[in-house]
């Protein structure tokens, strides 16, 4: 299986470029399609928060301003797609079965963020998001979590800069949990074509690093040579993973997302949250 149908969430911000570039790198081997999805902010959603005590004329002005902002961001997002396609040698195409080369399309959608993103993810081989490090826009974070937790498909979180290659030297963070198993299975299209695969295990109070060793044998049955690394450095699990990825030259880290509840990770922190806050390493996540 190859990644033929990819959705890329765009916002009109500067990070769109790296997300679209990463999505096109994933789609190119199979001449797939990247559907850039821009989610329009509905002015009516903010009315309950700011509407009380405002005159009808002022509310109309506010809605008009938000609509103009929507148009501006959508135009920027479309421009980012056009530039990414040109750089990748791709073409604009909206209909299956696509073109004789990698292609892209642009769609604007309106609705509840969670519903729109989860629905899009369910009918995508993989959904790509811009980096969310230090992201404070609720719609972006909510959309990412909905795609990850409700989409049933893998999610790629791009780095801040467009990588030269993606999925050539891959690292797998394995903790023996269901989320790791799903991430491994859903990432198999990338693993079978990788030049090098590294399996990372970390000892914690709840996980045994040695549980990652059998992953190498599992991958061998799929003709994927891999190396096992037991991490015994200092620092948090997230920091050890980042250090190991840098040491082996990984251009992608595959891992399960939100092994603990989102609320627990929000309050106490967690590996998923910490990895989402770094900006240099693309992540392929599954829940």
Automatic annotation (TrEMBL):
It holds the Pfam family Usp. InterPro entries: Universal_stress_UspA, UspA. CDD domains: USP-like. Belongs to the universal stress protein A family. This is Universal stress protein UspA.
């Amino acid at each position: 299986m190859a990644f033929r149908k990819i959705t890329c969430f765009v916002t009109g911000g500067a990070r769109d470029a790296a997300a679209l570039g990463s999505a096109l790198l994933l789609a190119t081997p199979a001449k797939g399609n990247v559907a850039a999805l821009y989610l329009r902010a509905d002015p009516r959603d903010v009315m309950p928060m700011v509407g009380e005590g405002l005159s009808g004329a002022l509310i109309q002005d506010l809605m008009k301003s938000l609509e103009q902002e929507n148009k501006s961001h959508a135009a920027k997002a479309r421009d980012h797609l056009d530039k990414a396609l040109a750089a990748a040698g791709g073409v604009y195409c909206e209909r299956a079965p696509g073109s004789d080369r990698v292609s892209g399309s642009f769609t604007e959608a309106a609705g509840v963020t969670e519903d729109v993103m989860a629905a899009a993810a369910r009918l995508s081989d993989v959904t790509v998001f811009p980096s969310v490090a230090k992201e404070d826009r609720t719609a972006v974070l909510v959309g990412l979590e909905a795609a990850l937790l409700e989409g049933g498909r893998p999610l790629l979180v791009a780095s801040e800069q467009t990588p030269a290659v993606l999925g050539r030297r891959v690292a797998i963070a394995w903790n023996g949990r269901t989320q790791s198993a799903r991430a491994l299975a859903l990432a198999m299209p990338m693993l079978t074509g990788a030049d090098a695969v590294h399996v990372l295990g970390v000892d914690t109070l709840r996980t045994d690093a040695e549980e990652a060793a059998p992953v190498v044998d599992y991958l061998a049955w799929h003709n994927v040579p891999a190396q096992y690394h037991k991490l015994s450095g200092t620092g948090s699990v997230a920091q050890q993973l980042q250090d190991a990825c840098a040491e082996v030259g990984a251009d992608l880290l595959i891992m399960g997302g939100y092994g603990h509840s989102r609320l627990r990770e929000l309050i106490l922190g967690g590996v998923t949250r910490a990895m989402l806050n770094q900006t240099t390493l693309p992540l392929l996540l599954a829940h």
